[in-house]
Amino acid sequence: xxxxxxxxxxxxxxxxxxxxxxxxxxxxxxxxxxxxxxxxxxxxxxxxxxxxxxxxxxxxxxxxxxxxxxxxxxxxxxxxxxxxxxxxxxxxxxxxxxxxxxxxxxxxxxxxxxxxxxxxxxxxxxxxxxxxxxxxxxxxxxxxxxxxxxxxxxxxxxxxxxxxxxxxxxxxxxxxxxxxxxxx
Length: 184
Ligand SMILES: C[S@@+](CC[C@H](N)C(=O)[O-])C[C@H]1O[C@@H](n2cnc3c(N)ncnc32)[C@H](O)[C@@H]1O
Prior knowledge:
Blueprint: H1 2-17, H2 20-27, E1 31-32, H3 33-39, H4 47-59, E2 63-70, E3 73-80, H5 82-85, H6 96-102, E4 110-114, H7 120-128, E5 133-138, H8 140-143, E6 152-156, E7 168-173, E8 176-182
Parallel strand pairs: 4-5, 4-7, 5-6
Antiparallel strand pairs: 1-3, 2-3, 7-8
Bound molecules: S-adenosylmethionine.
Protein name: Isoflavone-7-O-methyltransferase 8
GO biological process, one term: methylation
Domain O-methyltransferase C-terminal: 105-171
């Protein structure tokens, strides 16, 4: 359980760096294990590691996995989920840069999303990185009825007066990071 929470952000980062969401999307239909292994230019003999990796991510809601039979052999296919659709490049809702940023510094323990609204981005970050303290900072009237959970919290205030302390400050527009400043 602990190891799984630790591995999740790392595997998510690798999946983005390997371009797996884009490979599946460009394939236009669920991709088989052998097709994915070939697209990744990995020796077929190492396909079992790719399958283990994809199974872990599927277990964490990043991909859908289907294990069936075709003719007399096992056929494994992978598809995108709503979560991995948010990692597709070239879309205006791409969270890939956010994930790569969040995994870039292992010593980063907290972020504050200034003008974070109702916390759409922060909730995604909180789900992917449950150990990271995630503060959404917005005007008091915007956050007054919003409740956080675990490491997600909502703080009301005026950014022109002061903002909560955190290792990094982000400003987002939709799911694009417009500004990052390191408080450390
Ligand atoms: C363009 S929206 C961006 C919202 C969110 N980051 C997003 O992309 O969906 C700007 C946000 O800044 C907040 N805001 C405006 N003035 C502010 C201030 N003085 N202090 C804190 N937040 C403020 C607004 O309430 C609004 O939620």
